Amino acid sequence: MNKLRLALLAAVVGVSTLLAQTPAAPPPDAPKGPRPKLSPHETISANIDKNRVTITYGRPHSQDPKTGEMRKIWGTLVPYGKIWRTGADEATILINQQPINLGGTVIPAGTYTLFTFPTEDGAAKLVVNKQIGQWGIDPYDEKQELARIDLKKDVLETPVDQFTMSIGKNPAGGGLIKLMWETTQYSVGYKNVPAPLVTFPQPSPTATFKQRVGLTDIELVYSRPSLKGRKAFGGLAPYGEVWRTGANNATRITFSTPVKLQGADVPAGTYELFSIPGQDEWTVILQKASKQWGAYTYKQENDTVRVKAKPTAPSVTMETFTIGLQDLRDESATLYFAWENTRVALQLTVDVAATIVPQIEAAMASPDKKSPGFYVQAADFYWEHNLDMTKAAAWMDQAVAAQPDAYYMFYHQARVLAKKGDKAGALAAAQHSIALAEKDTGPAKEEYRRLNQAVIDSLK
């Protein structure tokens, strides 16, 4: 039913709009097949100022459909301080054919899910999420939120028994979306976003950079100013002053797991990245993201982390400001800023072993059959991270026993035995790998001859 429903909605604005969104995956324990709906569904639509806005939502009753008893809605059926699906069954869908300014936030044309976040003091926010296709709030991906918009609250003279939404003209201009249930009405206005007369290029284009380090996903969003004949540090970015570390909005960085930056602990989350340039030393600052423009509202008391770094002078002039990650390892990387003749590098570390080792140990202890490839991966991880080589050697014994003719298995075994200190065993494994590889007629023969010879040379 979810797929059919979304397909019908997509027809309103074109299939391409809907397919541009990312549907949410169902939870692993979700029942198979369509779920029964206990509340009638309604699609409402209004064409205001030549922009059609459509909402499809489930309409629960105040009366319990199973017992017939009247239920308390706000604070009970709709809990305070939690995300609500804004209706019943599937989460509520919003489709806008053209961009709209919804309560002060620009919502691009597309398909979205509308959630509501009510609080005990009577206030509520309308949450616009790019995630679509989920049943209720399961699962809910906060990272895909586009906005949380304040709703205006009014008291209805006549109670509304069945949850009702409407789209109509706003006396102040544009459209008005209303949510009504019991004696409470929430509303928010919207207006079309006028198309620009001319689309000009950005002086400092926005860039998004994504990189995985070990098991940590890192995302950077920043604007990239260019010199254009100007001086960067001590000029565009004065020494000793807080800088947005880019242009336009403050630079934003997200870590999916806890990390260390220059040795300082940084919890998982999204931060705004500021810096204080200096001729001999830089201060790099992370604050919880608050969508600041520039550094005009920066307050030091909101800092999460402050670290120091020494600038260096690369041989090549960098015309456009660049942030990147290099020197990638499972557990570390270098985060750097570069512009003009200045480069600032910071050490970023993650604790991969703390996550992976317990999983490996649990898998090895289980009676489930393991593939030879799994033994090799586990042994290689221990080899790469200088962990227990006795265990790694035992796992490689299992791997080569399962595939005694695989020359690449013996190469991995040779590496493990060499690090374990078993030179004789490492030499024998490497020589056996070369002998087996000689039977291969492809290019891998030469590669494994070279790899194994490197192991043999390291034993001398």
Instruction: Tell me the β content.
Output: 35-45%
The helicity comes to 10-25%
Structure class: alpha+beta
Average pLDDT over all residues: 89
Output the number of helix runs.
Answer: 8
Strand order of the largest sheet: 2-3-4-7-8-10
Give me the Rg, rounded: 29 Å
Q: Stretches where pLDDT falls below 50 for ≥5 residues?
A: 1-33
> How widely separated are the two ends?
68 Å
Main β-sheet description:
6 strands, antiparallel
How would you sum up the global shape? extended
**Number of beta strands:** 24
Number of domains: 3
Mind explaining what this structure looks like?
- The protein is of the alpha+beta class.
- The chain folds into 3 domains: 2-192, no CATH class; 206-349, no CATH class; 353-458, Alpha Horseshoe (Serine Threonine Protein Phosphatase 5, Tetratricopeptide repeat).
- 22% of the residues lie in helices and 37% in strands.
- It has helices at 2-13, 15-19, 353-365, 372-384, 389-402, 407-420, 423-437, 444-458; strands at 22-23, 41-48, 51-58, 92-96, 100-102, 105-107, 110-118, 124-129, 131-132, 145-150, 152-169, 175-192, 206-213, 216-223, 247-255, 259-261, 264-266, 269-276, 282-288, 303-309, 311-312, 318-326, 332-340, 342-349.
- It has a 6-stranded antiparallel β-sheet, covered by helices on one side.
- The radius of gyration is 29 Å and the shape is extended.
- Residues 1-33 have low confidence and may be disordered.
